[in-house]
Amino acid sequence: MDITLFKRRSDYEWEIEPTGGMRVPGVIYASEALVREMDHKVYEQTVNVAALPGIVQASYAMPDAHWGYGFPIGGVAAFDPDEGGVVSAGGVGFDISCGVRCLHTGLTADDIRGVQKLLADTLYVRIPAGVGSTGRVHLNREEMDAMLTGGAKWAVDRGYGTAADLDRTEEHGQMRDARAANVSDRAKKRQQDEMGTLGSGNHYLEVQEVREIYDAKAAAAFGLKPGDAVVSIHCGSRGLGHQIGTEFLKKMAIAAGTYGIALPDRELACAPIHSPVGEEYLGAMRAGINCALANRQILTHLVRGVFADVLPQARLPLLYDVSHNTCKVEEHVVDGKPRRLFVHRKGATRAFGPGHPDVPEPLRAVGQPVLIGGSMGTGSYVLVGTKEAEARSFSSACHGAGRAMSRHQAYRTWKGRQVIDELAGRGILIRSPSSRGVAEEAPGAYKDVGAVVDAADAAGLARKVARLEPLVCVKG
Amino acid sequence: MTAARWEHFPHEADMGVRGIGTSKAEAFEQAALAMTAVITEPSGVAAREAVAIRCEAPDDELLLVDWLNALIYEMATRGLLFGRFQVTLSDGGLDGTAWGERADVARHRPAVEIKGATYTALRVARENGEWIAQCIVDV
User: Fold this and answer.
1) CATH number for the segment(s) B5-138
2) According to the UniProt record, where is the region Disordered (chain A) (predicted)?
3) Quick check: A440 and B136 CB within 8 A?
4) pLDDT, average across residues B109-121
5) Which residues of B fall within a CB distance of 8 Å from A201?
6) Is A375 labelled a binding residue?
7) Helices A141-157 and A276-310 sit at what angle, rounded to 10 degrees?
8) Does the pLDDT at position A305 exceed 80?
9) Does A408 participate in catalysis according to the annotation?
10) What range defines the domain where residue A8 resides?
């Protein structure tokens, strides 16, 4: 992007001053180098979001921002329902509540290396991944509705985990005010055979080594030390969330006009929070969040089963589970006054700071874990939320590296086999049903995740705690 | 006038699908082939089963998204891949047929599943005597 389009607030904060229909400024948090690398579409989309009714404070883009649809991926915006604020299906995205959870193992990376191939093969066989894969949990209508209102709590109640898992999951594992009745039969049918599946694209399951600690106090609170082995799971609400996104995008694109909302881009399809379509979407979207939480919980159970067989001394308590694509009602202080806002995070992570009541009690003194996904060969990061992020980004941070290269270009640049062999040479075992999928997801197709988290840290959105490196990666 | 064809166009995270034809209906058929090519090589999909699809939308662009989303739904719920399409357009409506077979991971080596067709870069238009139908699909 052209850096002269911005007013530089600091080395890591770039303002787009309000012009035209913008109701608030746009703000991008990133280093100058990252801003220069971003597609110009990020600028346009940040500007467009700033023009939506009822937006509060600013339209934000995180350091990993890239061209999304409607909102940029890495976009954050909060809306006040009492000022005509809107909820946007495009502002949440198709993969509702796609997110990452990280599990301890109680083992070291050396323990893993002793059985690395067996562990990789067993995870690959027992974790359903890739196009058309189906899970072993099939839900009838009644159970589907129970899952959509119960989330991870529903899964734990049926034996797929423990109550302690819920203590370490956003919303305590169960998104309130979910409405299963607002989810179409088509969306439910699409999910029928997909519970406990990883999906494809950038979704993965990784066994990782804690390589570096940056913040000893937070790392100790999170239970992380160098050489530890952890498991990270990145996936979302599968077909159900995709179908909810598809259906409400159309409903809102058609309804926006009837509410007098001029859309600069159809993907910004939205409706007033206090409107029949807005409320219907919120109920369905929250059910989608529960689907993602239940899905990651079932996958956790499957991973524990694999470890019980391959490394029976392992114990896999949950460190934390974060969601990326959500709209959540939160209280934030704006101009010195607390306000109840609908915060959209599209490819962005909630990052509550120390003392926030929604951070699990054992972690509250240090803040919420912020889990940043990597891309097979590159590292992942654990960060911690800061108090400053409350004022800067409604307590939000980045969610991953963000793509630097299109799938098309990646496929032409690498061959899947070559990527797998090269990573095996570095001690990273990849298992995937699709070599083309591996080529499209090659580590080189992503931005430097280290530069992204450094920018998030320097901008005060979240602070670096630990870096993780993959040992085994199951790609969908 | 050139023959009907499809192509992909780049998007930072996802994939653009574009169908080009001598008629709007042909461009819709080719856009569907471009979408299959995001997942697998279309010529490797046998036409063993036919699925009928009907869509209605207030304009051509929403109709294209509906058509592609209907195919995504059928692929997801029936476990199918499609390699051949036929479309008839009427005022605000589409009647289509997709021919395909069950996805076979070993044979089709599907690269990625598609979450939905989006309104990004969405266009249905006549240019230089050809129809184009395109959008970004979220993968």
Assistant:
1) 3.55.10.10
2) 169-199
3) no
4) 92
5) 112-113, 139
6) yes
7) 50
8) yes
9) no
10) 3-475
- Please tell me whether A301 is known to bind a ligand: no
Handedness of CA B41, B43, B44, B45 (dihedral sign): positive
Q: Are A182 and A287 in contact (CB under 8 A)?
A: yes
Distance from CA of B10 to the nearest CA of A (A): 6
Interchain contact A403–B (C-beta under 8 A): yes
What total of structural domains would you count in chain A? 1
Distance, in Å, from the CA atom of B16 to the CA atom of A151, rounded to the nearest integer, reads: 34
Average pLDDT over chain A reads 96
Q: Which residues of B76-104 are buried (b: 16+ CB within 10 A; e: fewer)?
A: bbebbbbbbbebebeeeebebebbbbebb
Predicted TM-score of the model (pTM): 0.96
The CATH number assigned to the domain holding A95 equals 3.90.1860.10
Q: What is the pLDDT of residue A262?
A: 87
Is residue A454 a known part of a binding site?
no
Chain B stretch 80-139, residues whose beta carbon is closer than 8 A to a beta carbon of chain A: 103, 105, 109-113, 115-120, 122, 136, 138-139
Residue A27 vs residues A59, A388, A461, B130: alpha-carbon distances, Å: 6, 15, 13, 41
| Cα Rg, chain B, nearest whole Å | 14
Q: Which of residues 78-117 of A touch B (CB under 8 A)?
A: 90, 93-95
| Domain spans of chain B, in order of start | 5-138
B101 DSSP β-pair partners: B81
Tell me the CB-side half-sphere exposure of residue A106, using CA atoms within 13 A. 11
**CA–CA distances in Å: residue A15 to residues A7, A24, A28, A62:** 5, 10, 7, 13
Which of A66, A242, A344, A399 is flagged as catalytic?
A: A399
> Could you tell me the pLDDT band of residue A404, with boundaries at 50, 70 and 90?
confident
What local confidence, expressed as pLDDT, does residue B13 receive?
A: 78
Picking from A69, A107, A57, A125, the residue whose alpha carbon sits closest to that of residue A231 is A107
Q: Which two tokens stand for residue A316?
A: 């896999």
Q: Are A1 and A47 in contact (CB under 8 A)?
A: no
